[in-house]
Amino acid sequence: MNNFAVEINGLEKTYKTESESLTILKNLDLRIEEGSKVVIIGESGSGKSTFLNIVGGLDKATSGSVKVGPYEITSLDEKRISEYRSAYLGLIFQFHYLLKDFTALENVFLPAYMAGMKKNVAVEKAKSLLADVGLLERASHLPSQLSGGERQRV
Question: CB 3.0 to 4.6 Å from 109: which of 12, 56, 126, 148, for a disulfide?
Answer without folding.
Answer: 126
